[in-house]
Amino acid sequence: MTSPVLNLAALPRVPEHLRPPVDPRELRPRIVHFGLGAFHRAHQARYTENAAYRSGEPWGIVAVAPRSAGTAAELRAQDCLYSLTELHPADTVTRVSGAIVEALGMRPGAARLDALLAAPDVSVLTLTITEKGYHRRADTGALDTAAPAVAADLAAADTAALTTVVGRIAAGLAARMRAGGAPVTVVSCDNMAANGAALGRVVRDFVAAAPWPDRQAVLDWMAASVAFPSTILDRIVPATTEADRQAARAALGVHDALPVVGEPYRQWVLEDSFAGPRPPWELDGALFVPDVVPYQLTKLRLLNGCHSALAYLGAAAGRTTVADAMAAGWGERLVRSLCAEIAPTLPAGGPDPAAYAEDLVQRFVNPGIRHLLRQIGSDGSLKIPERWLDALRTLRAASAATPVLELALAAWANATRPAADGGQLFGTTDPAAAALRRCWQEGTGPEDTVRRLLHTLGATDLAADPGLVTAVAARLPALRAGRVEI
Ligand code: CS2
């Protein structure tokens, strides 16, 4: 028998304790979010819904899918309802979420989006578009105006033609200024150090390069009325599987085409500098602090740093998921020793690194979570500079030994070897895949290849460090043979 589809009409069939705490019909569109992926639905949407419930303030989210409009259409077919299942080690807890009040494809929904971005009632924009969505130059962090998508957006005749989120936000802010200029806060929710400043920079660079006669007025208004706080978000959210879909249906009694799953743990730390009204996310445990840097670097370098190391070492050793890699003899040792190596680079004021490492071990071994190493290993050329390279620079400048980071870098290098079909060896994707492949094709030997790979990451200084290059190259043969020696 087929179950009815999850939507407002079917909600009464869902067990009462699994229904959303808020009625989405009573919320107003006050946040516009770009990036309709599972992470947003499992993280910011949950905080927003709980904050709306606890405060009685009607904060609803308009979720925008930047590329494919398919997910937005599927979500609309469910009146924007979907379920979130928390994967505890021994059981699961499912609940329907009602935080999203509208779902749009960025291009087909352009006219509605124009209105929302200019509306004073919308005072927060949030983004989960991954590192590559920012189109930053690897060397300077400036907007890469030569990237074809950015160049096309700079020349676009109207907002329905825009394909980059950076261009869409810049055009939206310009329209907002022209419509009266209510203050607004734009919140990057992606895994980058100083993500607020990074976002502010590329949006300002876009405005400065746009052919608009009033672009200087837009920049001046932005300086006074638009905030770009830095944030750090944490929750492990693996891609949803067919088994997850079936489990959600069994729990709900209705069919949810868009369920998401995540670990029970979640964290959100935000720089307390908003330009206008915001949801009281602190009512659901978010932390507003004057300076997020200690939290941000701890999370990026320890959690995400260990994730990437597990991804590439695990791939070399034939493992599939984080929990599988942790079950290998070297998994826990890797996490503890990488955290210990990186800890001296972390500023004071964040979590205690040793306790953080122990928590990571517990989170990573959770057998309920099927987090694919392939998912984490993708886009490595953009993730690794954030996760490993600044720590490596600090340590090498202090003449500290860096054996675990060298092993991790070697594992990443090993994973960039071209596969027989021309793709990446372990099924990962990377926007720099062609350039990485050339490093192997044109490298005159292991050390030369490692140097070229580091150049591709924009790390010319590290490529010029012979001790590092030799140590990384020396690790390659064992990894190639599938051995992780730590
Ligand atoms: C992961 C992150 O895919 C990845 O690169 O390291 O998505 C990680 O799961 C989250 O940042 C956890 O908060």
Structure report:
α17 runs antiparallel to α18. The chain is of the alpha/beta class and 486 residues long. The chain folds into 2 domains: 279 residues, NAD(P)-binding Rossmann-like Domain (Rossmann fold), CATH 3.40.50.720; 188 residues, N-(1-d-carboxylethyl)-l-norvaline Dehydrogenase, domain 2, CATH 1.10.1040. It has a 6-stranded parallel beta sheet, sandwiched between helices. 49% of the residues are buried. A hairpin with a 4-residue loop joins β3 and β4. The model has no long low-confidence stretch (mean pLDDT 97). It contains 20 helices and 12 strands. Helix content is 46%, strand content 12%. Bound molecules: D-mannonic acid. The site of D-mannonic acid has 9 residues, from α10 and α14.
Distinct compounds present: D-mannonic acid
Overall geometry comes to globular
Percent of residues in helices comes to: 40-55%
Number of strands: 12
CATH superfamily of the largest domain: NAD(P)-binding Rossmann-like Domain
Computed structural class: alpha/beta
Termini Cα gap: 53 Å
Total count of helical runs of at least 4 residues? 20
Q: What Rg, in angstroms, do the CA atoms define?
A: 23 Å
Unreliable residue runs: none
Describe the SSE topology:
Blueprint: E1 28-34, H1 38-42, H2 44-55, E2 59-65, H3 70-77, E3 82-87, E4 92-97, E5 100-105, H4 110-118, E6 124-127, H5 148-154, H6 165-178, E7 184-188, H7 195-209, H8 215-225, E8 226-227, E9 231-234, H9 242-252, E10 260-262, E11 267-271, E12 287-289, H10 293-316, H11 322-327, H12 331-342, H13 353-365, H14 373-377, H15 380-397, H16 403-415, H17 433-442, H18 446-456, H19 460-463, H20 466-480
Parallel strand pairs: 1-2, 1-6, 2-5, 3-10, 6-7, 7-8, 11-12
Antiparallel strand pairs: 3-4, 9-11
Helix pairs in contact: 4-6, 6-7, 7-8, 10-12, 10-15, 10-16, 12-13, 16-20, 17-18, 18-20
